[in-house]
Every structure is written in C-alpha cells, then in structure tokens.
Design the sequence.
C-alpha cells in the first residue's frame, strides 16, 4: 500500500513538470484575483499588459517544452502530445488576441480571471483522456463562461447569461448521465484504455450508443452544433464583443479537441455497432444548413455571426467526419484559419461598435469615409465564405478534399451528400457574409457621421489580413507543421 | 522572358500602389490605369513577335507554387503555370485591347475614382491571369478573383437597380464556380503526374487531359464503373463543369443575370462584361471541360448543341422584343454566344475555329455596341428605344458608327461577325454528316437566328435613326460624338472590319489550335474503358 502510494506520488510529481504552461496560468489566475481583491490597482491597462505578457510567456514555455513523444500524465488522466499541444497553442493565441481587443471594464481583475480560467480549462480539456477530467475541465470552462457572458451588465446580457447557464447545465447533466451509463457498461472512465475498447467490442451493448450520444451532447453544446445551438445567438448578441470573439474560438476549439478523441474512442477502430461518421455527418449537415439559412435574415451583426459560427462548426465537423488522420489534420488547419478570420471580423466589428454602430443598416456608407477597416472586414468575410485569395478557401478546399477521398474509399453516399450540400451552402453563406460589406460600400452614408479608425487597430487588422493571404499563398508553412502531428488515441 | 507574368501582375502591382496613394489625387488614378494599359499594349506587341503559330503552348512559365502532404494519398503540388496557345493568345490580345478602351471609357467616372480604378486594375490582372493559367487551381483563383471587383463595380457605380443586379450577378457566377470547384477537387485527387508513380497529385491541366494520369479505379478514371443515377462520375463531372461555364457564357436558361447586369452596369463595365467575361464560358469549355472529359463531351454533344440552338433563337427573340437599347444588345449577346456553343458542339475543325472566331469578333463588336449605347445614355439618361427617332439627322458620325456596329453584329459579309458565324454553320452542317453530333434540323433552323438578328437590328435602326427627329423627355441640342468617344470607337470599328476582310490574321492562330483540339474528340482517340 505504501509502495503504491509512493509510486503514485512520484508519478504525480513527475507529471507536474510537463504542466508548466498550465502552472503559469494557475499562478496568474490567482495572482490577478489577489491583486483585484486586496490591492487598489484598478487600471485595466496594467491587468491587460500583465495577462498579455503572461500569455506570450506561456506560449513560449509551451513551444520550448514541445513534447517529442506522447506523455501520459497523472496516471492516465491527461495525455500531452502534439495534438493537444497544438490546440493549447491555439487557445493561448486566442486568449492573447482577446486581451488585445478587450475594452476597459470596471471589474478588470474578474474579467481576466474568468478568461484565464477558460483558457486553463480548455488546455486541460484538450489533454483529457479520462471522463472525470473531461467533466471537470468542461465545467471549469462552462462556469466561467456563464459569468463572462453577462459582462455587458445590462438586462439583455443577464438574459443571455442565464439562458447559457440553463441550457449549459442541462447539457452537462445529460452528459454526466451518459457517462454513468458508459462507466457501468465498461467499468472504466479512461476512454483510451484497452479495457474500454475491449469490453465494448466484446459485448456490443445497444445501450452504449444511447449513452455515447448523451456524452457527446455536452461537447456538441460547447461547439454550438445543431440541435444544441440555441443558446448561441442570444449569448453572442448580448455579451461584450471581445468576449464573443473569445467564445467563438477558444471553448469551441476545446470542444472539438475532445470531441475528436471521443468520437475516435467510440468508433472502436471501426468495430463499433454504429457507424459514427453518419451521426457526425448529419450533425455537420444540419449545422451548416440551419446556421447559414438562419443567418440570412439577421439584422444584428453579432447575431448573424452567431449563426455563421454554428455553420462554421458544421464545416469543422465535416473534417472530423472522415475519422482519418488527414481529415483531423485538415480540421486543425481550418481551426487555425478560423481563429484568424473570426478574430479579424470581430475585432473590426468591435471598433465599429465603439462608434455606436450596432445594427447592420448602420454600416451604410461607412466604407467610403474610412476604407481600411471596411476592407479588412471584407477580407474577413470573404475568408469566412471560403473564397480565394484567403486561407479560408484553402481550409475549405482541404476539408472537401478529405471528404471526397473518404467517399472514394468508403463509397458512402452520405459523404457525397455532405460534399454537395457543403459546397452549395457556400453560395448561401455568401449572401449574408456580404451583407455588411454591401452596406459599407454600396449604400450611401447618412450625412454627418464622423469616422475615425485607430492606427494601432488598423495595423493589427492589417497583420491578420496579411496572415490570411499569406496562408493562402503558402499553406505548406502551416500544413507542414500540422502534418507532423501524429495522433494516437 | 516573363512576358505573361508582366502582363498579369503589372495591373495588380499598380493596384497596390494605388491603394497607398491618397484619395484626393482624384484624376491621377485614371492616368495610372491608362499607363498600365498602354504598357500592356507594348508588352503585347513584344509577345506577339515571339509567338510562333504552329507550336502549341508558348511563352511557358512554370514554377512550383506549393506542395502539401495528403497523408496516405501522397502529395499535391500546385504550380504557377502560365502559357498561351492558339486559343488563349487571341483572347489575351483581345483583353488588353478591350481593357485599354474600357479605361479610356472610364474617363467620365467622377464618383470615388480611387476605388473605381483600383478595382478596374484588379479586374484587369485577374482576366488576363485566367486566360493564361494552365494550373486548374491558379485558373480558379484568378476566376474567382474577378467576382468581387465586378460586384463592386456594378454595385457602386451602376444604375438605379444596381444593388439587385450586382448581387444577382455574384450569386449566379458563384454558383457556377462552385460547380467548377466540385470538379476541381475531384480531378486533382484523381490525377497524378506521370513520373511520380501515383504519389504526386497535380492541378496541371495538361496532365489532367491525359487519361493515363488518372489513378486507376478512382471515381473519375476511365475504367471506373461507379454510377450515380444513370451517369458515370466522369459524365457528372463534365455536366457540372459545363454548367459552371454555361452560366458564365451565358446560355439559356442560365442567362437571366446578364440583362440585369448589363443594363445596370456603367458603360465601361458593360463593355468588359460583354467583351471579356462572357468569353470565359466558351474558353472554359474548350480548355477544361472538353479536353479533360472528351468521352463525356461527345456523349452530351447533342444536348450542348441544343442549348446553343435554344440560346440563339431565344436570345434573338428576346432582343426583338426588348424596349431598352442596352437590354437588346445584352440579348443579342446571348444569341451570339449560342453560336459559340453550336460551334463547339460540332467538334469539327470549322466549328471549333468558328466558335473561337465568334468569341473574338463578339468581343470587338459587343464592346462597340455597349460603348455606343453608353454614348446615348450619357447625353439623355434614357435608353428606351421608343423615345428616340430621327437621330440620323442630328448625330451623323454616331449613326455611322451605329450602322457599322449593327451590321457587323448581324453578320454582314466583310465584318468579323460574318466569318465567325459562317465557320460555325460550316461546322454544324458538316457535323451532321461526319460525326452526327448535331442533327441537320438544328443546323438548318439555327440560321433563323441570323434572320432574326437582321430583323431586330434593322428595326432598331428604323425606329431610332430614321424619320423625323424627336427625343422624348429631352430638351436641348444633342451633341454628336466627341473626340474621346471617337478615339474609342474608331479602333473597334477598324478591328471589326479588319478581321472581316483579313480573316487570316486570326485564323493563323486558331487553325493549329482547332486541329489539335479535334484530335482529342475524334472517335479513335476517345478513351474507352
């Protein structure tokens, strides 16, 4: 008994040194909280700098300690590998950009503590191999998100936050119920273990499919896939724009990270009683169609982007559908590009919002008086549509390529339907993605609207625009890196 | 020698410079744009000197663009691959010529000159790039790159219903390019370079044309037996590709965006749209759809000929019924593009030569007609035919040009339009005897298109230019055309006449191409599983 405890302790101590980035985030979280509670530092700028610099530091630590081979930590609770490290890098990048575009708030320290908690939870979620760990990190993300969604501090924001909370807790409850069933069926919470796969392959319990779907509910809720997308428009509309940008990238990608692992686990190396790509494909299809069609009639830019974000989740799910290494790598590429284009769009919208532009008709003619932000927004929208010359096109091209190839190999007609429906939806999506540029450039401006755009903001947007074009011209730069990611369940 | 690259990237570089210049330098943007067009003309003359008639693809520039790993499926390489042959060279020359005239025609644009000329320059580079690209991905990128500038050029500088027209244009064309994208994805995943033992996938169009480069048993390969409905995947791919290009052509019933876009677009943009953008329909069929899927092309030739036949007659009938001068010219474009389709479907030397000849001559003549319509609209802000009569007495030079334009367009011998149409009909009649792609009744009844063409043009002349002078809703003296307009119209009139009298000027380019092209489609060459 003592020996066992001893070895467990050594394992925990050994594992700790692999979690330096998370360690920094935890320390920072408590540091910022303490500063906010016990000192008089109220300046938003100080917190902003502190958190921003720390994100950079964490990122560097992550890159320096990049795992050469997959490491199992804490007795199989977490796995640190290329896959999770890449996601962690995306979360940190997302966190950093959010800090950069954040606007002063009177609860500075709380604002950042919650954000840090979400990034921390996402990092842990991307590494989780154990259902308990999945639930814990997911709840860390969720609880912080509920609060952050209400940070506009008006009744609308409170409504959004409450809706998010209610839907979220139900989704989590269903997930936990599903987990209890899965645990009962397999006798293990470690979904990467042999016991998990062997038991299921040997017995093929029908209940397992229902239980697995219930488990996925919690994650599909996070990535706002249909039919668990209902919270998205309300939260996006009411939360502060930088927070929305953050929500649409970091927790969503974290959901994807673990969803990919879980679906592969449920797939049981192709020996599952149910053909999981079918379900994922259908969810992807509905997300794309419902997201795009609902976005058509929106007049609030953030609400429109909420539906766009649902459709984009669908596109990323398309990449997962093939359940091949290539498909997953393309999803990673698309996710990285999505991070850039989504932040570009939200950041420009945030600038416009500062000038009181909240509804789409209010954009009328603004592209004529100050063209740069308008063009940056246009590039972002074109990238989200998936047209050249932006990396959004490359991302979609790769995802469709993986669909085609999987179709060639499997002959499943569902994949063909997905392929065609996905492409046709590009045309539908163009209609609403071009709506804001349409008002910006084609409509006449009402008289006397002064327009200003900050130099720093413009430079930042220029950087993102150039990045999108550069990744289109040289996709191999990013793809070469992603290609080295090996993926072991 | 990087002649083609200079031709493509000069306007794009100029657009970048223009972005950095302050907007208050209003009129310097048109000077920048004009100098770009003039330099392009000089470059074109240099290139023409280097071009040899019999040599297939020339002025080749080929460099790797990017290589991506596809995991288990090998690698894919995209190339920067541009070259011209007897098909694309005349079209590139036409583009440079028309873009120069469109730039001169844009002189009257007053609203936001910076934005206008930047978009025009981007459009310029994208058009020439699309005609030169031999890498499918590169072509697609240039092709899509035309959409946004065109959308804004119609949407911002267009007429009263410009918003509707521009989004309609965009959605139609994007739908077409999505069809093309489907095939693009399928093709590059099925085609590998010859010396890579099936590992290096490619977008290279020349490799795609060789059935030996298709991976055996891939869904697009010749030996694949997989069917979807009653068609094989190769047939589906051909149909999608053709649909994509037919929207661009445009062929009935996919043409409805064209009249709206033309009527609402400002004159220079109408000119570019009619003279150059429509050519991508025919060009795409001749460059991509037919050579890559010759087996499916011959399978569907009756259908393609039929669409062409319908377009000829339906377009002509609509032109006859049009009350708006610009709409009339737009529908006559639909009718004339139908001839292109008929020529392509015939798959004979005459038909193919005639189709490309018709594309070039329509490029010249429709540009002239839209400029002429613009001249009148500039003066009276009115395009309705019924509002005019007796213009011949007030605008003598204008009437002369209208007569040249109309007669050239209706296919009077001695003008460029005649050569193209005659060759198409020769091909169509020959086809019914040689390969049976076009039934005789279609070839015979298509000649009605010529008759209707003469009908609507002569009737328009009679209504607008003869009789007592009157312009409804316009007071003041109508000015005859000015020097700038003269400068634009004269070269077009001369070109229309020149290619009518000396067809050899163009046939020297087209014949070697057409001779090569029909090789692909001859029954002995068509790959069979």
Sequence:
């Amino acid at each position: 008994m003592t020996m066992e405890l001893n070895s467990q302790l050594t394992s925990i101590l050994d594992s700790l040194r692999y979690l330096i980035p998370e360690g920094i985030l935890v320390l920072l979280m408590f540091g910022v909280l303490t500063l906010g509670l016990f000192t008089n530092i109220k300046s938003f700028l100080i917190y902003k700098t502190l958190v921003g610099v720390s994100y950079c530091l964490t990122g560097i630590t992550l890159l320096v300690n990049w795992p050469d081979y997959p490491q199992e930590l804490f007795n199989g609770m977490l796995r640190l590998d290329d896959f999770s490290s890449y996601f962690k890098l995306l979360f940190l990048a997302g966190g950093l950009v959010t800090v950069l575009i954040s606007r002063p708030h009177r609860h500075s320290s709380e604002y950042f503590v919650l954000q840090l908690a979400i990034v921390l939870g996402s990092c842990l979620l991307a590494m989780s191999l154990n259902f308990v760990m999945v639930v814990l990190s997911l709840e860390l993300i969720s609880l912080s998100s509920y609060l952050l969604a209400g940070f506009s501090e008006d009744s609308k924001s409170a409504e959004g936050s409450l809706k998010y909370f209610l839907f979220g807790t139900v989704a989590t409850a269903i997930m936990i119920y599903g987990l209890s069933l899965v645990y009962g069926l397999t006798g293990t919470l470690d979904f990467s273990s042999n016991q998990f796969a062997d038991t299921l392959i040997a017995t093929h319990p029908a209940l397992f499919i229902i239980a697995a779907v219930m488990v996925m509910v919690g994650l599909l809720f996070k990535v706002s896939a249909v039919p668990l997308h209902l919270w998205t428009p309300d939260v996006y509309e009411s939360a502060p724009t930088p927070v929305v940008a953050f929500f649409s990238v970091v927790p969503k990608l974290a959901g994807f990270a673990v969803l990919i692992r879980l679906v592969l686990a449920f797939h049981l190396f192709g020996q599952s009683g149910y053909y999981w790509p079918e379900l994922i494909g259908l969810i992807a299809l509905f997300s794309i169609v419902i997201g795009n069609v609902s976005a058509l009639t929106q007049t609030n830019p953030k609400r429109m982007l909420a539906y766009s974000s649902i459709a984009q989740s669908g596109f990323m799910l398309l990449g997962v559908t093939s359940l091949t290494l290539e498909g997953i790598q393309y999803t990673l590429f698309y996710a990285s590009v999505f991070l850039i284009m989504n932040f570009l769009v939200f950041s420009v919208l945030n600038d416009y919002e500062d000038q009181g532009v909240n509804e789409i008709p209010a954009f009328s003619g603004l592209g004529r008086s100050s063209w740069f932000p308008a063009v940056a927004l246009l590039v972002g929208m074109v990238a989200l549509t998936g047209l050249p010359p932006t990396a959004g096109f490359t991302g979609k091209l790769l995802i469709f390529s993986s669909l085609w190839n999987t179709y060639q190999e499997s002959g499943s007609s569902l994949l063909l339907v997905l392929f065609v429906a996905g492409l046709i939806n590009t045309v539908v999506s163009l209609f609403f993605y071009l709506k804001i540029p349409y008002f910006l450039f084609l409509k006449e401006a009402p008289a006397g609207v002064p327009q200003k755009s900050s130099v720093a903001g413009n430079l930042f947007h220029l950087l993102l625009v150039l990045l999108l074009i550069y990744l289109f011209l040289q996709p191999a730069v990013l793809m070469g890196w992603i290609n080295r990611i090996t993926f072991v369940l | 020698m990087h002649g083609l690259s200079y031709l493509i990237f000069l306007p794009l570089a100029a657009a970048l410079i223009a972005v950095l210049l302050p907007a208050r330098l209003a009129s310097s943007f048109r000077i920048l744009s004009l100098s770009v067009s003039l330099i392009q003309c000089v470059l074109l003359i240099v290139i023409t000197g280097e071009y040899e008639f019999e040599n297939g693809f020339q002025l080749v520039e080929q460099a790797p663009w990017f290589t991506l790993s596809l995991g288990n499926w090998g690698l894919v390489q995209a190339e920067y691959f541009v070259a011209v042959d007897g098909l694309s060279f005349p079209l590139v020359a036409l583009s440079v010529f028309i873009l120069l005239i469109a730039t001169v025609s844009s002189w009257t644009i007053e609203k936001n000159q910076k934005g206008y000329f930047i978009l025009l320059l981007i459009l310029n580079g994208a058009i020439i790039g699309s005609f030169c690209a031999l890498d499918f991905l590169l072509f697609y990128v240039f092709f899509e790159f035309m959409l946004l500038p065109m959308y804004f050029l119609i949407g911002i500088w267009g007429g009263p219903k410009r918003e509707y027209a521009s989004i309609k244009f965009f959605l139609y064309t994007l739908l077409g390019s999505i069809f093309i994208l489907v095939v693009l994805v399928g093709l590059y995943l099925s085609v590998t370079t010859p010396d890579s033992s099936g590992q290096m996938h490619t977008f290279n169009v020349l490799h795609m044309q060789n059935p030996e480069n298709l991976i055996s048993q891939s869904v697009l390969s010749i030996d694949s037996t997989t069917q979807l409905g009653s068609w094989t995947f190769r047939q589906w791919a051909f149909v999608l590709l053709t649909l994509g290009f037919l929207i661009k052509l445009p062929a009935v019933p996919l043409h409805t965006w064209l009249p709206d876009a033309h009527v609402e677009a400002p004159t220079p943009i109408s000119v570019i749209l009619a003279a150059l953008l429509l050519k991508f329909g025919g060009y795409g069929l001749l460059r991509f759809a037919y050579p890559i899927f010759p087996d499916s092309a011959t399978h569907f030739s009756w259908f393609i000929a039929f669409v062409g036949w319908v377009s000829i007659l339906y377009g002509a009938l609509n032109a006859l019924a049009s009350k708006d001068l610009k709409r009339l010219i737009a529908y006559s474009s639909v009718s004339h593009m139908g001839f292109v389709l008929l020529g392509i479907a015939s798959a004979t030397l005459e038909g193919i030569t005639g189709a490309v000849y018709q594309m070039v001559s329509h490029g010249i003549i429709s540009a002239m007609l839209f400029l002429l319509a613009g001249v009148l609209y500039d003066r009276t802000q009115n395009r309705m035919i019924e509002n005019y009569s007796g213009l011949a007495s007030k605008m003598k030079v204008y009437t002369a040009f209208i007569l040249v334009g109309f007669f050239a367009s209706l296919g009077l011998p001695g003008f460029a339009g005649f050569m193209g149409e005659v060759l198409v009909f020769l091909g169509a009649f020959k086809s019914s005897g040689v390969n049976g792609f076009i039934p005789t009744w279609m070839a015979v009844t298509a000649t009605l298109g010529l008759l209707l063409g003469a009908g609507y043009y002569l009737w328009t002349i009679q209504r607008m230019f003869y009789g007592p002078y009157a312009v409804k809703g316009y007071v003041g003296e109508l000015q005859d055309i000015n020097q700038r307009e003269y400068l634009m119209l004269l070269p077009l009139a001369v070109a229309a006449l020149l290619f009518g009298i000396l067809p050899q000027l163009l046939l020297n380019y087209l014949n070697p191409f057409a001779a090569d092209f029909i090789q692909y489609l001859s029954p002995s060459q068509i790959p069979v599983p």
Summary: The mean pLDDT of chain A is 89. The two ends of chain A are 31 Å apart (CA to CA). Chain A has 22 helices and two strands.
